[in-house]
Fold this sequence. Notes:
By secondary structure, the protein is an alpha/beta fold.
Amino acid sequence: MPDCIFYGGKGGVGKTTCAAATAFRLADAGRETLVVSTDPAHSLSDSLEVDLGPEPTELEGATRDGDAGLWAVEIDAETQKERYERIATALAADLRSAGIRLDEEEVERVFASGAPAGSDELAALDLLVEYVDDGRWDVVVFDTAPTGHTLRLFDTPEVVGLALETTRSLRGQVRRIGTAARSAVLGPMAAMTGSSGDQDDLVAFQSRLERARELLTDTETTEFRVVLLPERMAIAESERLVDRLREADVSVGRLVVNQVLEEPDPDCSRCHARYERHETRVREIRETFDDLEVVTLPEREGEVQGLEAVRALAKRLPSEE
């Protein structure tokens, strides 16, 4: 099974840049690599200065030796989102029209926990399994959404799994109502897999979510890396994120402190003050996360854009071999 690397953190800290640079590093090391953007903002295309779509695109000439390929893709979140939102609304209406009565606990499980079914996180998990099990890549690097979305992504398999399990438990009631009602209830769920609504399809979809959970919590192959800026509030936010990921049994292996001032202008007093502040914050980060690898990346003027710029930054990252 290929390795999975997730980059997460607050919005605007440079997750996309780190994910792209890591993908370059891995490809240059001879590993077939796919970098995936699950962020609705989709800045991966801008970072690489390459037009990307919902299907993996090989970046020709991206690696020096050409021994391994580098691929990139941006998940078409809106299309996937619409698909799952239709399922949630149609299921609610069809259950009522079929005359199926649910007790309060079942309603809560289907509809309250079913809210994530209308989110881009579910699409990301569905495609996570597809890309990892495809067999074309040695490593899949994910540029995830900002912290709040990331936490929902890791919660989704368990939450949606409950909704699917409850829906499957209605099969007996549906059969008693008749074939028409059965079709009405399971029809919306068929949109998940593009089938006629057979129970086997529902089981298959639930199996993919279980597979996603298995991948996310596999400490042998999956690693989550947190990106942050050298700021006091960022340290506290990152602590909460690391704790939450560990509670979900997700392995956290590295912190990347981005935009650290390393060479202040000798004639700029404000630069020296910021330099000292950054040094202090980096030291605090190393002390706070003393069980994690901490990597620093330099402060840069403007955005990192273009293959050569991303490649140059990749050289600052530790070897992935």
